[in-house]
Amino acid sequence: MNLQNFINNEIESPNSNELLNIIESISFAAIKISKLIFSPERKDLDQNIGSINADGDKTKKLDIETDLIVKQHLKDCNLKWYASEEENAEVLFNKQGKYSICIDPLDGSSNIETNAPIGTIFGIYAEDPNYSKTILQKGDKLKASGFFVYGPRTMFVLTLGNGVLLFQLNNEDKFILLDRSIIIPPNTNELSINFSNYTIWPNSIKRYIDKCIGVDKTMSNKSYNMRWIGSLVADCLRILIRGGIFMYPEDARKGYEKGRLRLVYEANPISFIIQQAGGTAIDGKNRILSLHPKKLHERVPLIFGSSDEIKTFLKIGMLNGKK
Ligand code: FBP
């Protein structure tokens, strides 16, 4: 079964045709992005273009091109706001639009030249007259979210709030359904964190990691393994498939007081998927999806994965209520 058949035959209301059309259009954009990345003629895609995006990150050619491709494919959809990592502010598509989208057109751009997996992340909200900026709502209000991974295979993970689906792109440009109900194993011994930041983490993170790696031997005799790709989409896909815990906490660096990842177009869509797959996503304390974003590019500490492991983290990390 491919994505189009699935959308036409298997998705029931309350998902409107307009919403499904948006998802289909993003999938066409992802096919185009995937071809662009796979094209050997485009050796220039990892070049810095000399500008810094709204988040303060160096912008690469591929960042800009993916944003243009996505915008082009979405422009005729029933969308009011287009909110992208690559834009300074939300872009108004259509005043009467019924939905709004937040998107990171190219996640993991520091990995382009190494041929490690990179991706596209998105979340869709229904327009709500109570909000002047629809995308500044809690993630709990998301109608759909998903991400594409451009790796050895091009994969698409999607939720419409009723479980998590996994598709793979075939040679005929069709996304084929591989799994209609991904569930994250609740237990894990795999952790994913950028260890080079050890000395600047808060104590709660150090306490937990020290126990995982046996510096502090008071935890169970479970032995952990580390996997860190440094592309959120790839680390998240691995956790969806075989469990694990991902952590990008705040740290002592300037600008990292609230971590590195962005709440609106990275943490919220990913957390919706994780929750739909039976996992947990928190900022160290609170559920990510319960947070009220104040601005488009705000950052948030992000910890997600196997639900039992997050409970263990909370028990150890929040010892005596201390962070
Ligand atoms: P971009 O949105 O700028 O690509 O950054 C996000 C990201 O690449 C994530 O995919 C990844 O989890 C994280 O940054 C890695 O950060 P670091 O290089 O600090 O470990």
Structure described in brief:
By secondary structure, this protein is α+β, with helices and mostly antiparallel strands. Helices cover 28% and strands 23% of the residues. It has an eight-stranded mixed beta sheet, sandwiched between helices. Strands 12-11-13-15-14 form a five-stranded mixed beta sheet, with helices on both faces.
How are the SSEs ordered, and which strands pair?
Elements: H1 3-9, H2 17-38, E1 48-52, E2 58-60, H3 61-74, E3 79-84, E4 91-92, E5 99-107, E6 118-126, E7 144-150, E8 154-159, E9 164-169, E10 175-179, E11 190-193, H4 203-212, E12 225-226, H5 232-242, E13 245-248, H6 263-276, E14 280-282, E15 302-305, H7 307-317
Parallel strand pairs: 3-5, 11-12, 11-13
Antiparallel strand pairs: 1-2, 3-4, 5-6, 6-7, 7-8, 8-9, 9-10, 13-15, 14-15
Helix pairs in contact: 2-3, 4-7
This protein binds 1,6-di-O-phosphono-beta-D-fructofuranose.
1,6-di-O-phosphono-beta-D-fructofuranose is lined by residues 57, 104, 107-110, 194, 230-232, 248, 260.
